[in-house]
Structure formats: C-alpha cells, structure tokens
C-alpha cells in the first residue's frame, strides 16, 4: 500500500551489507534459520548492529545491541516512538523524503504524541532504550528491517506494516543493498501461492478482480465467465460456513483444524458443511472431517516451482515415484475439472508455467529452461530480463512512496480480571506449522520439547506454578493443557505457546478477530488465565 | 582488485591478491590434497596435508593458509612434498580403523582417497589406538571419534558458519578429541542439530543415521531441488535408493550449503507409513477406500449439486502454501473458471 507491492524488498544475500538490523516480530533463528545465520554473521564478523524488538528473549537477543521487550500488540506505538526520536533529533533523510515520497507532513502531525515517555506507558519499553534504538537506526547509512508474523498477525497488522514502511522511508532505507523492508514468509511457497492468484481479491500476478480489464483478459484466456466480486478470505470462510453461506469446501494441502484461530469454531464450521473434500498426503485433523479424501504427493514426487521469500522462483524436481496410488496434485485438479465439464490439458508442469507467464507480467519472462541456473526473482517481465533482486530502486511501484500516518490501537482482547495474562503464539525450530511433516519425522520428534507453555518466573510465583508442571491455559474460547516452562525469556504478564501440537493446540485459545483490511487474525495476542491442571481438592 | 602472477607446477597463474596458494592452484585445475581446508571456512592449517614447496622457503608451506605473492614459484608434486603427505597419511592411519568394508564414507572419504593415490594400505607406525565408545545418543547422526582425524572442520562450521559453539577441541596430544563441554550428549548443549558438522566431515566420523546400511554412495541417485519447509528457499540435494530418500545435503544456493535441522533431517514424512495411498470416500459415516474414478465422480457430483442448489458462491477453496506454483495456479483457475467463485485463499495469513 505504501510502496505498491507486498514482498521482501531486498534479497537474502544483500542483507549482509546492512549496518543495522531491526528485527521485529520475527524469531529468525528458529523460523528462518538460514536468514538467522546471515544476521549472526553480519553482526559477528562485519560489525553490524542489531536491534531486536520482541516480547520474548529470542536467540537473536544474544547477538543484539539493544533488545526492546514490548507488551504484545503495541508495535505501532513503538515504531511511531522510534520515528518521533528520529524526527526530533534530525536523523531523517530529507533528500529521500523530498524526492521519493509524499505525505510526510501528515505523518509528522500524528507522531507528535508519541514521545518516548508516552510510548513507555503503552508498551512497557523504557524511554531511554527506545531513544537508543532510534539513534542507532537513524544514524545508520544502511538499515534493514526484518519482520514476520509477529508484525502481521494482529488486528492492527496492516498498521504495523505501514508504520515500518514510514520508518524505512523517513530514513531513506529503501531501494539499495543492505536496506529495505523484509517480511520473511513462513512457508516454502506461501509467496508463490499469493503470486499465482490464490487470494480472493486478485487474479494471478496481483491483478485485481475488481478491474474489468483484468477479468476480460483472463476470461479470454480461460474461455469462461469470471465472477466480478472478490471472494472470502480463510477466516471469513469459516464464519460464512457457520452462517450457512458456504456449503461446500475443497481444501488442498492445508490443515485449518490446527492452523486457524479458535479451533472449536473451525471444527463446527467444517462439520456444518454439506460437502468437504480434502486433498493431502496424510489424514490430517482436517481430512478426518472430509467426505472425500484425495491422496496427493509430497514435493519429492513431482516437478514444479516454489517461490521463496525473496521472490525467487526456483525449480522443484521429481526425485521419487508417487507413493502407492497417490497422484501429483496438479493431475488431480485436472481430473476434477474435467469431471466438472472443463477440460484442461498440460503434459508437464512446465506448460502450466508457460500459461502463468503469458498472463502474469511479473512472471512474464520465467521458463523452466531459465530456472536451471539458480532461479529468477520477480518482477521478471520478459524472456531477456535478468530478474529483480532489489525493489523500488529508482521509484516505487506506485510512483512516490506514500507515508500513511497510523495511530496506536489496542488489541481486540486485552487482559482483564478474569483473563489477566496475554497469550502469544509462534513457532519453534524443531517443528513446522501444523506438524503434518515434522511430527512424522522420528528424530525431530524425539528431540522436540512438546506441549510447552513459557511462563515468566514472576507469573509462575504468582500462580504457584512449578517448572515442568501441567497447567491449564484458558481463554474465552476454550482451554488447553500444557507443560509449564518457567523462563525469564518471556516478559512478565505474557505467556508463549507454539501452535504445532494437536494434543495441546494453542489455536483452541486464540482470537479470530481480524485486521479490517488484510483479514489476518490476531494470533499474537489474546487474553488468558492459567490454572494448575490437577488441582487437589 | 590487484592481480598477482605466480607459477604453480610450471603453469603461469594469475589470481586476485589475497588468494591462497591452494585456491590459486585449484583455479588452474591443480588439486592439492587437503583435509581441513573447506571453501566456506576460514583456513586453520591444521592437517598439514596441503604442504607444498615454495622456491626460496626453507620449510614446506601450508598452501591452504598461505597467500600468493608476485613471482612465487610453487611445486606441488616434488619428492619432498610427496614424502610429507605420506607421513601425514601414515600417522593418521596408525590410529584409524581400517573398516572401509562397512564404513558409510567408503567412496567419499578423503583419507581413503589420498591413501589410494599414495598407495598406502596400512601404517608402518604401530602403537596405541583409541577405542572410544561410539556416540549414538542423538537421533540424527552418530559420532565415531575413532575415525576422527582432528581436521577441525566441524568445529569451524559450528563456530563460524552457524555461530553455535557446541563443540571444540578438548584434551591434549594423542588424547585430543572434538567434544561438547564435558563430553555431554549434544542434546544438553546449545547444539541445534543443523548437521553442518556432518556435512563438512571429510571421513566417516560423523554420519547420518538415516542412511546407515541403506546403500553405497555410488548406488544413490542425486537430485537437486528446493527445501519444503520455510520460505527461505534453500537448495537441497536428495539422495535416493529404491524410491526412498535416505540423505539430504546442500551445495550453494541462497543458503550457501547451510541447512537447518528440518531441512537436513526432517524427511521421514516422505516415505512414512501414514501416507495416504488411495482415495477415501465417506460411506455410512466412515471414510473407506475407493477407486480414483469413484472419488473424482463423488467430488464432481457433490460440487455440481451444491452449485446448482446454492450457487457458485456457496463453494470455497483453500489452496496450499506447500504445493507448487503450477498447482496453486490450477487450483485458483478451477475455483474461478470451472466452479465460478473467487472464494479461494490459502494460509498466507496463518
């Protein structure tokens, strides 16, 4: 929105050129370990400085020069506070603001309230530490912002991202090596699934459904009539199913029964459907509810491409034959479509890529032959285009970068008398998403601390919880048993749970309140209380 | 960058200033034997295998650590050099189990390779040998320090590639051993089981458990692909025998050969017995096995029925961040063009 496209602006390998890293809402060494290495290396060997903003003492804090442990859900206040200091101490990049952006004056007006002292009251981060971080960031010749779901999974997710965009633009940290705004995508091909149009409001290549010319183009290519209105996002689908507006669902390779917020609701929604088809490699928690289960194959059994977090389209190659009677997912879709009366024929995934390239300008120059040597970063509009390692070099996709003044808004659910603690969720190194893959990897399971909930010693004392003890975590939506891990790595008043484990699913507790624009659920903040599980009467 | 000219084995070589002799030789196709040198690691000159003769120098020079100089004349195959290499190999073999018959490193082992090249089948030095207990305590790899040649690659990779510091040299002299603090199992150290140490081990001291006795290295098929876990997009190589993935390694890519625990060891799921191998259709409340024909027909009939009764917008689809671009493209095309709804999303927000 601020720049005109949503993706990592820079490349993984140019991160090493940053003088300062601001890592906010990303547990990089656990969720994106190889990028974690890059940051550790830059700090240890190139003298780069690291600012970590996270309610948990994540591994990167050991390498950090400044760690700000904010109360979850107060990121806008923190970022505005950083900008306040940067502005008041004359550390903004005036030339960049003048030549490349618009709307700075409006931003200034909003910032005036976010003095470090005011921000301290909201976030719990000391005014002095905030000033130090702002100076470090503001004085750097090149500063790179790295974030992940800790920024986006909030009812203010969009505001958080816009605030970071303001910070990067105000300091001129866009469009060069070692700078930029770098969202790290959590799954191998989440970037690609977005790129090729698995979003309800855009056709492949982020071409808006609402624009008639786009629909016309695809109607012609696909020989069909296309619906004019954008569709529903994932959490909206659940709600629509409960309202009886969605009656049938086709779920391919997803496990909403563990990944989505408020699982009790999700289960009700899926059970209320007239018809559910699930295509997966395992009988997941979601597949168990299906009317038909279609066995797809793993990444090792098919050809194709994945697009990484740095917009790099890379070749995935078939290594083994499909297991048993399973079939490559692309072939299954072709057969279902044929049975529905629409015939598509592709002999090999490379022919599908040819079609994607012909309809989606950002992939326009991508062919399998060209991907043989290490992949291509979009935008890659033509067959002779080398790909784009750094976005927004000369200008933003939308022309001038736009400052969007944003105000701090509290999370949808705040602690109160009955639910006095904040629950935040995330990943751990040894597990992955809903665990369908990692929980079937023997060694990985042997070594994983399962079913944990991190509790600060202060809270442990207050609620008389001992390390290793079974506790109940209770929210307005449900309760879950887990084992307490008493640790100072989490701030007082906040507890942390990974969401990988079906037997103590954190998402039974989480809040499905959505960001009004991105429709992303607030998985990072909800109010809970804790009780000892086997209370003696 | 300033260029330096030198002569290696009579060949004229021009390389950038700061290049080591070993790398300069490599650039013109001259391979200097080595154990501790590894392109991604800082040179330690620990193994003494890469010694060469430099004109004017009294002693043999460790080519992995010594930088080139203008006009330098280097010889890598003189009698003196060969003698030194033989000494290194014989000393290593004097305390190394000669169990190549069953060693998984057979065919990829640097010690075996150089012993073969130098025609050494056993050591003329007889003496004490270590008999360490093989450490099988972690689920991913075994640590057999009887086979360790103390090149130190694993220590360097642990410290300066992954920045962990779980292992280092301990003890002195003959008893020198690579170890965790107080020789505790790796689970009790900061080790994150990235397996970087296993990847750089030039012999069979560190070995993935998954591949043990599953096939000789030359029997395995190697295919380059992309890791299926997070969004970084690391390049990986899958090693396959009998339709089973038994080993994962990496060279180059955005990850420069480094991987994490999931990327290197998290592949049991591919050939797992839980894999769905046939379609299932719910009958009388239970999911039962069905033919592809029946399953596809059931899907099509039901989607058709719902669309007719409630309209296309009563149908929704969730695509997959784990599937390929091509599959995701087809999925949204099916939802939009075939079923007629924009109700298509995936877990980008989760």
Short description:
The complex is a heterodimer of chains A (537) and B (350). Chain A has 19 helices and 21 strands. With 537 residues, chain A is an alpha/beta fold.
Describe the structure.
The complex is a heterodimer of chains A (537) and B (350). With 537 residues, chain A is of the alpha/beta class. Chain A folds into 3 domains: 12-183, Dimethylsulfoxide Reductase, domain 2 (3-Layer(aba) Sandwich); 190-377, Rossmann fold (3-Layer(aba) Sandwich), CATH 3.40.50; 421-532, Barwin-like endoglucanases (Beta Barrel). Helices cover 30% and strands 17% of the residues of chain A. Chain A has helices spanning 28-31, 33-45, 75-88, 94-100, 104-111, 116-123, 127-139, 149-152, 157-170, 190-195, 212-222, 234-242, 256-259, 263-271, 329-339, 349-359, 368-371, 442-447, 457-462, and strands at residues 20-24, 49-53, 66-68, 101-102, 143-147, 181-183, 202-203, 207-208, 248-252, 275-280, 292-295, 304-307, 312-316, 376-377, 401-402, 421-426, 452-455, 470-475, 478-486, 494-498, 526-532. In chain A, helix 3 crosses helix 7 (127-139) and helix 6 packs across helix 7. In chain A, 60% of the residues are buried. Chain B is built from 8 helices and 16 strands. Chain B has helices at residues 21-27, 79-93, 110-117, 153-161, 196-200, 261-265, 292-310, 325-339, and strands spanning 3-8, 11-16, 51-54, 61-62, 73-75, 141-143, 168-170, 177-179, 206-208, 221-226, 235-241, 244-249, 280-283, 286-289, 315-318, 344-345. A 5-stranded mixed sheet of chain B has the order 2-1-5-3-4, with helices on both faces. Chain B has a 3-stranded antiparallel sheet with strand order 10-11-12. The radius of gyration of chain B is 27 Å and the shape is elongated. At the A-B interface, helix 2, helix 10, helix 12, strand 9 and strand 10 of A face strand 10, strand 11, helix 6, strand 13 and helix 7 of B.
